[in-house]
């Protein structure tokens, strides 16, 4: 049913895998040289002794201004320039509170930057000139040629789709959801400073692991990010899977040492967390200037490549229908306000909550979302090379649903579905299948209170909910939210504005 996890994220793949992914049988001639560098890179066998030597021999780090093509070098005391050539007003003297209340800011998701590109040897210390990318034409399952719905990476040929992406509110509750989304969603400046940090860190990490690639993943890129979202990074060091209990921890120990010594001038509080999937947590204190007193927090893992694939699957769902993003952000804020959005404390992760919203929209009598993996298998092939993953969603047309429900009705329906309709004891949430399916009888699912299938590797994303007390609390919050919204139709009854402002 699922591909062997050891085959995920291992570029270059054998020719048979490339033949299966006919979505990219021909690469565009004007593709950016940074993307071509993925194909030119052959990942050598990993050697810890060499890596340690590289760390010891690497020179002291001196921060240099980063130049993106013909854009002026970025200074931490000045305003960011748009990477798509559009002028952006300076945010240097703008207070955080004022920016939080800016409801008509441009959509950050359309300015996504080039992702985790391994630089060739001669370019390792300078970024190339950006060239617009035109994805090869692809029309899904006999559908007519429609304008693409997902903002492509580094593509300046298409206008900002912000105004056409948001639905029109026809009732008070729907308007409240839209206002919340506009106030809380990640801004272009938030994404830009995360990308600046990623670029700088990749350059320094490549002094230890020359052929490694650093990817920005998760909510920062999938369309569901907010102003308070952390930056999730995936360091891909080699083709083969990495043992998370041993090898990944040793790799992260070297990264942690790098952050604690040579990069201490702009990396703050690096911590090595020895979890099931170990990470290095840290804060970027240089890019803080673009966000007043707010530091950017990051989690960095090693070779957890399924996160790269699901980032762009979720990104496609985020933009394929204009009601998805506001609904997801409202649910995430509600769950955070009611303290059921923290996997480290036995409740739901943000990723599980997003999958639950997507599943609900797929399970409606008149669906609002399809199964993208079924409709477009070429674009979400788990054997696709990582450097091609980000291009596929740009070719998928918008999904036209006959369901005209308002955002308010959908939010009420979401809570009702999980409070009264979904069978938690016998069913599993599957976005891959676009329906609830019977629970498998495997150790991953046995004695688990909530089962949410990861779309690529088939694991349970809600396995953190392993205490009945926490599960009962989660179900109780769904039931209470449904009854309050059904009776009052006021977002403030489940998500007070004051709490929203504090957690923005």
UniProtKB/TrEMBL annotation:
It is found in: Cytoplasm. InterPro entries: MTPAP-like_central, NT_sf, PAP_assoc. This is polynucleotide adenylyltransferase. Residues 104-113 have a biased composition (Polar residues). Its EC number is 2.7.7.19. The gene is Tent2. Residues 173-318 form the Poly(A) RNA polymerase mitochondrial-like central palm domain. It comes from Sclerurus mexicanus. Residues 88-103 have a biased composition (Basic and acidic residues). It catalyses: RNA(n) + ATP = RNA(n)-3'-adenine ribonucleotide + diphosphate. One of its GO terms (cellular component) is cytoplasm. Its main location: cytoplasm.
């Amino acid at each position: 049913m699922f591909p062997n996890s050891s085959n995920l994220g291992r570029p270059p793949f054998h020719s048979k895998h490339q033949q299966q992914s006919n979505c990219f049988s021909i690469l565009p001639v004007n593709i950016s040289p940074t993307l071509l560098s993925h194909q030119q890179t052959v990942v050598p066998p990993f050697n810890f002794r060499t890596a340690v030597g590289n760390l010891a021999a690497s020179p002291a780090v001196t921060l240099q201004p980063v130049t993106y093509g013909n854009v002026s070098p970025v200074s931490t005391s000045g305003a960011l320039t748009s990477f798509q050539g559009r002028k952006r007003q300076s945010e240097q003297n703008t207070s955080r509170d004022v920016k939080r209340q800016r409801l008509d800011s441009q959509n950050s998701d359309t300015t996504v930057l080039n992702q985790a590109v391994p630089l060739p040897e001669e370019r390792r210390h300078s970024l190339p000139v950006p060239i617009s990318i035109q994805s090869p034409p692809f029309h899904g399952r006999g559908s007519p040629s429609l304008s693409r719905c997902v903002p492509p990476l580094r593509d300046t040929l298409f206008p900002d789709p912000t105004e056409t992406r948001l639905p029109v509110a026809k009732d008070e509750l729907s308007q409240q959801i839209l206002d919340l989304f506009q106030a809380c969603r990640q801004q272009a400046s938030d994404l830009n400073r995360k990308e600046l940090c990623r670029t700088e860190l990749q350059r320094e990490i490549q002094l230890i692991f020359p052929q490694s690639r650093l990817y920005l993943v998760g909510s920062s890129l999938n369309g569901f990010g907010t102003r308070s979202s952390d930056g999730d990074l995936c360091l891909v060091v080699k083709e083969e899977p990495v043992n998370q209990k041993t090898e990944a921890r040793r790799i992260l120990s070297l990264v942690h040492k790098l952050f604690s010594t040579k990069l201490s001038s702009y990396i703050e509080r690096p911590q090595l967390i020895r979890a099931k999937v170990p990470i290095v947590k840290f804060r970027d204190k240089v890019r803080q200037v673009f966000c007043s007193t707010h530091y950017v927090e990051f989690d960095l893992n090693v070779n957890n490549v399924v996160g790269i694939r699901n980032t762009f699957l979720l990104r496609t769902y985020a933009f394929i229908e204009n009601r998805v993003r506001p609904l997801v952000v409202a649910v995430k804020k509600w769950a955070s306000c009611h303290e059921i959005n923290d996997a480290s404390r036995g409740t739901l992760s943000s990723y599980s909550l997003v999958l639950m919203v997507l599943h609900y929209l797929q399970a409606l009598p008149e669906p609002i979302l399809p199964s993208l993996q079924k409709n477009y298998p070429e674009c979400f092939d788990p054997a696709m090379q990582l450097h091609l993953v980000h291009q596929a969603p740009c070719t998928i047309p918008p999904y036209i649903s006959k369901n005209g429900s308002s955002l308010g009705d959908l939010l009420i329906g979401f809570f009702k579905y999980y409070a009264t309709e979904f069978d938690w004891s016998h069913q599993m949430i599957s976005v891959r299948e676009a329906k609830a399916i019977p629970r498998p009888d495997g150790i991953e699912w046995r004695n688990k209170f909530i089962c949410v299938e990861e779309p690529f590797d088939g694991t349970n994303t809600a396995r953190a909910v392993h205490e009945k007390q926490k599960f009962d609390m989660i179900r109780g919050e769904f039931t209470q939210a449904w009854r309050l919204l059904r009776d009052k139709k006021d977002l403030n009854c489940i998500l007070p504005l004051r709490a929203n402002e504090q957690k923005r």
